[in-house]
């Protein structure tokens, strides 16, 4: 696939940005690297003249930005999402290095829309937000001063994306020999499976929503690692539906 | 030589910067990547509150910045200098790619001080200034919008310098704390899970051993890709056991 097309499939999602200047800087950073799809989740101030000023010639990206009230909606239709995380969380995927993770992002972009997800300037992504991503990326920084500006973080990852998109990338072994290939499941399809799984686990008493513990994050980590295909989501939901029917039949008598 | 020492030998030289905010952004970009030696040639406005604001926690680099009236003086004592150039000039070195040029810069840093030289925001480096450099570097950009912000250009090259200094092995967050790492499940543990899954799917009627089709191989492919951990096998078998109990209760009556 052409590098320009791969890059056009990357959504840059900014969650709860506080400073409109950073939104403008992100738009400019994206456009210099050939990315165009700016996505905002609950921006504090937008649109704003400060965003336009910092965007300079990339105001078109600001005008075309999509705005949502939850990360979940912002990721609808994506097949892969990577969240920026400065640190390992108790829950959630272990952060990989930018080069490695961007390479995975571009491989996934061959199949559909993907996302690079950035958190708020001060607090980063919440654990809940990071749970919605398949993978995490951490930009290596000086341990004594790791305060990377949001626009700079967007710049570094978009730069890596451009470098990777235009580099010769050998076809992944997976894509060469795939016996039963099915398209990667979209974010909403995978979320549908998680919701179904939770319902079944709650009905059977294995999961108690009053005392959730780490069960759901652990299951998300497992299936996130596998990057479910559509066909697999259908199979898993079929397994779940069959147990529900069986349970239902049993309790009818 | 230690990565920190190599990085401490890199001077970031800004020639005739117009906007003090960009000087501050450059300082912050440098410090996040472990560089410290900011050098200014004829800044239009410096010091300036806007520089301090954009530097946030990197004001110490602004305070320690060296200021000169010519690039020639700013480069005194360096053994190697690379100038940023968006284009090939009639005169001067042909620009190389960031990764390749930064690698050369770090090799030279083993011998002494080196410099990354950036031009004015609007006009870049003059031909005369570029002539003072040993080599040129060009950051690949979108041909339709190559207007990289000065602070962003500093960020990208300092990031490449850090990556190269740590030779693709920056301390990974993963190695510091691994939250719920459980040992990889053994072959027999995974097989026990598959057998359990098959039993449940058969009991619910989702799977018919008489007409197996591709169901089991597809599930093996999914969970094989994830490389299950022991803890995860226990969770999955817990989910299965709970559905069996529920089904069992129902059919007792």
Strand content of chain A: 5-15%
Q: Helix amount of chain A, in percent?
A: 40-55%
- The tally of beta strands of chain A, per DSSP, is 7
Beginning-to-end CA distance, first to last residue of chain A:
57 Å
Mean pLDDT across the residues of chain A is: 90
Question: What is the count of structural domains of chain A?
Answer: 2
- Please provide the ordered H/E string of secondary-structure elements of chain A: HEHEHHEHEEHEHEHHHHH
Summarize the structure.
With 253 residues, chain A is α/β, with parallel strands linked by helices.
Describe this structure in words.
Two copies of one chain form a homodimer. In chain A, 49% of the residues lie in helices and 13% in strands. The first copy, chain A, folds into two domains: 3-166, Alpha/beta knot; 180-252, Helicase, Ruva Protein, domain 3. Chain A is α/β, with parallel strands linked by helices. Chain A has twelve helices and seven strands. In chain A, strands 3-2-1-6-4-7-5 form a seven-stranded parallel sheet. Chain A starts with a helix and ends with a helix. In chain A, helix 2 links the parallel strand 1 and strand 2. Chains A and B meet through helix 2, strand 5, helix 8, helix 10 and helix 11 of A and helix 2, helix 8, helix 9, helix 10 and helix 11 of B.
List keywords for this structure.
homodimer, 253 residues, alpha/beta, Helicase, Ruva Protein, domain 3, 2 domains, 7-stranded parallel beta sheet, 12 helices, 7 strands, globular, disordered C terminus
Write the layout of secondary structure elements.
2 copies of one chain form a homodimer.
Chain A lengths: L2 H6 L1 E6 L4 H13 L4 E5 L7 H7 L3 H5 L2 E3 L2 H4 L3 E7 L10 E2 L1 H12 L3 E6 L8 H5 L3 E3 L12 H17 L6 H4 L10 H17 L11 H12 L3 H23 L1
Parallel strand pairs in A: 1-2, 1-6, 2-3, 4-6, 4-7, 5-7
Helix pairs in contact in A: 2-3, 2-8, 6-8, 10-12
């Amino acid at each position: 696939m052409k590098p320009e097309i791969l890059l056009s499939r990357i959504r840059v999602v900014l969650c709860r940005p506080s400073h409109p200047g950073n939104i403008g800087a992100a738009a400019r950073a994206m456009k210099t690297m050939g990315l165009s799809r700016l996505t905002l989740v609950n921006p504090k101030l937008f649109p704003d003249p400060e965003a336009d000023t910092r965007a300079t010639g990339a105001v078109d990206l600001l005008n075309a930005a999509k705005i949502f009230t939850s990360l979940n909606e912002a990721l609808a239709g994506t097949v892969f999402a990577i969240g920026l995380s400065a640190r390992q969380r108790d829950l959630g995927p272990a952060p990989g290095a930018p080069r490695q993770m961007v390479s995975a992002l571009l491989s996934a972009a061959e199949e559909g829309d993907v996302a690079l997800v950035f958190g708020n300037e001060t607090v980063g992504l919440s654990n809940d937000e990071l749970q919605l991503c398949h993978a995490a990326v951490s930009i290596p920084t000086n341990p004594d001063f790791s305060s990377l500006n949001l626009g700079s973080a967007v710049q570094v990852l978009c730069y890596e994306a451009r470098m990777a998109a235009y580099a010769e990338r050998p076809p992944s072994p997976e894509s060469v020999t795939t016996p039963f290939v099915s398209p990667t499941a979209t974010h909403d399809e995978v979320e549908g499976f998680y919701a179904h799984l939770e319902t079944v686990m709650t009905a059977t008493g294995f999961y108690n929503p009053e005392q959730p513990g780490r069960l759901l994050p652990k299951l998300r980590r497992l299936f996130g690692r596998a990057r479910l295909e559509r066909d697999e989501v259908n199979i898993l939901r079929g397994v779940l539906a069959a147990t529900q029917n069986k349970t239902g039949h049993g309790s009818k008598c």
